[in-house]
Amino acid sequence: MRDGLTRTERIVLTTLQELQQAREGRSVPTMELWGRVVEKVDLSQAELQAILSRLAGR
Prior knowledge:
The chain has 58 residues and is mostly helical. It contains 3 helices and no strands.
């Protein structure tokens, strides 16, 4: 893919989308997202926060 995202960023985004759909569009707690992402890739909480900040454009 040529969207500029890393594999980990792509996993975070797809997992977030899955959780939002399951919660009918409501906000997803960061810890719940982290718990699901960690099942797929080794990632610390700080790394997840950095990815979320980068994806949000901060």
